[in-house]
Write a structure and sequence with these properties.
55% helix, 10 helices, 2 domains, alpha+beta, single chain, 5-stranded antiparallel beta sheet, 3-stranded antiparallel beta sheet
């Protein structure tokens, strides 16, 4: 499962990694965060202070005066302050959007069993056999004034087929399981175990059979329908229902989802123009009789992995891969 939404597109021929679709939560926080703060400072704080005045025995007229005095004082502070943070959030989004537009994703072609890289600063793509790719998980730990900090990442690397130069590509993840699951999503696609983006990246299982694989308006409508179904079945209470509606009202209802749809379409349109010609030709579908096949060595290793998983389903996948690698490395050294 691609929890980090690093996979951007999945077709019968290829999978794009490193330029995923933008999440709706980012737009909700960009728009809804400043708006909520504005409402709280401009209206919430005066209401709280006027309520405290009544609680301390003041008359209603005094409480009303407190409300309007604090409202007059806080309204413009809220407007200017939250306006600043709104512009800051939009600026951060724009910077990230420009980066997404310029990124050429790493493309995994399962029909050719090859991977295409376009290193940053270069225009010519590098094509690497899938079975020569190396993947790893990183874990770092350090002590700061705030306590022990841990960082996790997922990386892939290869040696240039012609020059032998080493290339690596690393992504930060939230934890080790996320890093492993990201690699498993790619591996499962290349080995024909999954075929669609929905299988590895369904946002909260809110995609319909014919829905596009991003968090557009269809996700909002499916979420609302599921909420009402769960409410009727007694799985959700009235407080949860009210909270859901309040959250989406503060975050501007379906506007974030519509912005995701607009952003996805724009990125796709621009990425098609920036794609190197050699990479575009390499991505064209092949007749099935020309598809590359996995090596016998990989087939044996895959069977051994499945055997170990069946023997102990709770065993960490990293331990299984390490054991299989050690077993086959020992066999290779004995043959040599």
């Amino acid at each position: 499962m691609d929890h980090g939404h690093a996979v951007g597109e999945v077709t019968e021929e290829f999978l794009d990694f490193g330029a995923g679709t933008p999440p709706v939560f980012g737009w909700q926080m960009t728009l809804g965060g400043p708006f909520f703060c504005f409402l709280f400072i401009a209206f919430g704080v005066p209401l709280i202070l006027s309520g405290l005045a009544i609680a301390h025995g003041r008359e209603l007229e005094t409480a009303v005066e407190v409300f309007w005095e604090m409202f007059d004082y806080g309204f413009w502070i809220a407007a200017w302050g939250c306006g600043f943070f709104l512009l800051l959030g939009l600026g951060i989004w724009y910077r990230g959007h420009l980066k997404l537009e310029s990124i050429i994703p790493t493309r995994f072609n399962r029909q050719r069993r090859e991977v295409c890289f376009v290193p940053e600063g270069q225009k010519e793509p590098i094509f690497v056999p899938w079975e020569e790719l190396v993947a790893w998980v990183t874990e770092a730990q350090g002590v700061t004034e705030y306590g022990v900090q841990r960082q996790y990442g997922f990386g892939i690397g290869f040696y240039h087929p012609e020059t032998g130069e080493k290339y690596t590509l690393e992504f930060e993840t939230y934890g080790q399981p996320q890093a492993i699951s990201t690699w498993e999503a790619i591996r499962a696609y290349m080995e024909y175990e999954v075929h669609t983006l929905k299988e590895i990246q369904d946002p909260l299982e809110l995609q319909g059979p014919d829905d596009p694989p991003w968090e557009g308006v269809h996700v909002f409508r499916n979420a609302r329908k599921r909420l009402h179904d769960e409410y009727r079945n007694g799985k959700r209470g009235m407080l949860y229902l009210i909270g859901w509606y309040l959250y989406h009202l503060v975050t501007f209802w379906t506007i974030p989802n519509r912005l995701v749809e607009w952003e996805v379409k724009k990125i796709k349109r621009i990425s098609q123009k920036t794609l190197p010609k050699a990479m575009a030709q390499w991505s064209e579908p092949l007749p099935e009789d020309q598809w590359a096949r996995p090596s016998e060595e990989l087939k044996r290793q895959s069977r051994r992995v499945l055997e170990l998983q069946a023997a102990d389903p709770s065993r960490p996948v990293l331990e299984i891969f390490a054991q299989v690698d050690e077993e086959f490395s020992r066999k290779s050294s004995m043959i040599a």
